[in-house]
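Hi, here's the filled form for the chain we discussed.

Project: internal
Contact: R.S.
Residues: 374
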Amino acid sequence: MSKLIELEKLGQSVWFDFIRRSLITSGELQALIDKGVRGITSNPAIFEKAIAGSNDYDEAIRELIKTETGIDEIYESLAIEDIGMAADLLRKIYDSTNGMDGYVSLEVNPHLADETQNTVAEARRLFETLNRPNVMIKVPATAAGLPAIAELIGAGVNVNVTLIFGLENYKAVAEAYLTGLEKLARFGPTVKGGHPVDRVASVASFFVSRVDSAVDQALAEVNATALQGKIAIANSKIAYAEFKKIFDGPRWEKLRSNGARVQRVLWASTSAKNPDYPDTIYVDELIGPQTVNTLPPATVDSFMDHGQVAETLTRGVEEAYRQVDELNTHGIDLSAITQKLQDDGVIAFAKPFDALMQSLAEKRDRLAQQGAGG
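And the returned structure, exactly as it came back:
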């Protein structure tokens, strides 16, 4: 049995953190689904590598040039076709899991991270354009993103909330989800193809490895190396403990009685950035029920080869709290670090998006000249 399927038996779904047209058309994605992959996530950096870094899309770009389509439209046409094909391939998973898995995520333009209503408008437009029940629109958990998340859930749009690094931000995301569900339960979906309260889905993408990268540096500066490599996992375990509290009690029970689903925590940024750490550390240590782990290709291969399958997420939670508290004794403010990571993350997603637009413009011009010359 595949280790990914073993994880599924423990209540954790693995989504593939990569997309590229040849992945879908070659049969490779189907092979991954057969091994236990249950969804796909994408971001601007992934699309930049796929579109700018390959020839997979040249023929499609040539066809789009004929209609004199602008760069933004070319990108969106390419991305939507990929997302649509992947969603169609994953539809059986979506149906067989009653809408728990089988999702493909597409991110709103990262330059809208601080614009609530523009984020809502773009997310609704993308959701309607794709017109598939198993698409999630990715929205960052910024101050402007939080009300957008509530509004989108309230309209019946599936949302993958991204760029969560800290506990307080995570709790605000869960609050936005609950607020959206309450609105949806009261008024029903208001977007074309929108889901009712017993069908809408969301995940909260909690970033892991980058926390260690930042905290390890701060620990080195105060010569407190004993905590290095531990805080990202501790931070995640505390967030999961909070998840279990949030989706319990009278408020949640009222929504659950209407068929509402929990907003699963999704572990993101799970490839080990530090070569001194085991390459599956952020998979092995975060296995638990009602969670998702999104893995890039190399981490999938590593986990399939030598990952450890066991429920670990609920182990050592008291120790996790102690480790985070110990940061304070060294003068390290985890909240400030995680906020900076989110701020930097917004910029980090905007850069490859801009690079993609530039490379698309160059590729369009080159292909157009080849066409004119031919």
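Let me know if anything looks off before we file it.
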